[in-house]
Amino acid sequence: MGLCAEAVAELGRRYQGEGDTSPIEPGEFNPPNGLFLVSYVDGQAAGCVGWRRLRDGVAEMKRLYVRDRFRGLGLARKLLSELETRVLGSGCHRIQLETGTEQPESMRLYESCGYEAIEPYGYYKDSPLSRCFAKDLRVITPVGYDHPDAVALCVDAVAELDRRYGGDGDGTPMSAADFAPPSGLFLLAYLGGAAVACVGWRHKGEGVVEMKRMFVRDAARGKGLAKALLNELESTALAAGHRRVILETGAKQPESMRLYAASGYEPIANFGYYKDDALTRSFGKDLTDQ
Question: Where are the domains positioned within the chain?
Fold first, then answer.
């Protein structure tokens, strides 16, 4: 009996039914919109798990299963970790799943790995035994501007500016105090536990904040991180009582200008450290217009 057949049979024993009759087509687990993983121990198939794309940015986990004789070896956790890595590599940033009350060890595993309960959504959403969980692999959190991860990202950001514009990258005077609450905030985005993007805001005048250091590392681009950071920056600035964001970018950062324009930012008069530079482009947005 194959792993998936065994998994369904075990569900049948636990729930006193047919196991799992939710529709699954083999092609749903084919790259790039899915993947199926099998773990081997001494050449024997010991466990499995798969994911399929539900919608943009969201993957669903299916068929996490370990054969009886291989339990207690940490295989389920290893499979889950590998699945998260593969899902991130596909461009998805959230995993959700459907399990049930008769699988308490599964629920303990998910909770210990950072999964949180969500509203039932799947094939068995109307069953009182259904339990659903989800985990955001993309985490945005405030840190100090002098946090080691923030420092490393800012070094990379300035190095990229140097490559694009030449010179020292960005000579704008900044300090950790600029981004210390309540007068400022610095945000990092993590993917799979690795710091990959950043942005900060600092007080610039009555009700106005200036955005600085919007940056996403090469390997993490194309996953919507810049937009997610921008949204979080605006939310935190609003929560702190500010009503306008301004920023300084440049003609050699066309992707940045496209992001700002698409997010409701409009060109304004240059104001910053590079206001007299012919390549400088400045933008602003009234947050009350959201």
Answer: 3-136, 139-289
Nearest residue to 52 (alpha-carbon basis) of 20, 100, 87, 80:
87
Domain 139-289 has CATH 3.40.630.30: yes
β-strands 184-191, 138-143: how paired?
antiparallel
Q: How far is CA 188 from CA 25, 146, 270, in A?
A: 38, 12, 27
pLDDT confidence band for 138 (50 / 70 / 90): confident
Return the exposure string of 112-140: e unless at least 16 CB atoms fall within 10 Å of the residue's CB, then b: eeebeeeeeebebeeeeebbbbbbebbeb
According to the model, what pLDDT value does residue 93 have? 87
**Coil vs helix vs strand at 88:** helix
1 band by pLDDT with thresholds 50, 70 and 90: low
**Domain 3-136 of CATH type 3.40.630.30:** yes
Picking from 139, 27, 132, 151, the residue whose alpha carbon sits closest to that of residue 88 is: 139
pLDDT at 170: 86
* Helix H or strand E segment including 98: strand 94-100
Q: Tokens 């937009």 identify what position? A: 227
Nearest 5°: the CA angle 44, 49, 52 is 145
Is 0.90 topped by the overall pTM?
no
- Digit-coded pLDDT (tens) for 45-74: 999 999 999 998 899 999 999 999 999 999
Mean pLDDT of 111-126: 95
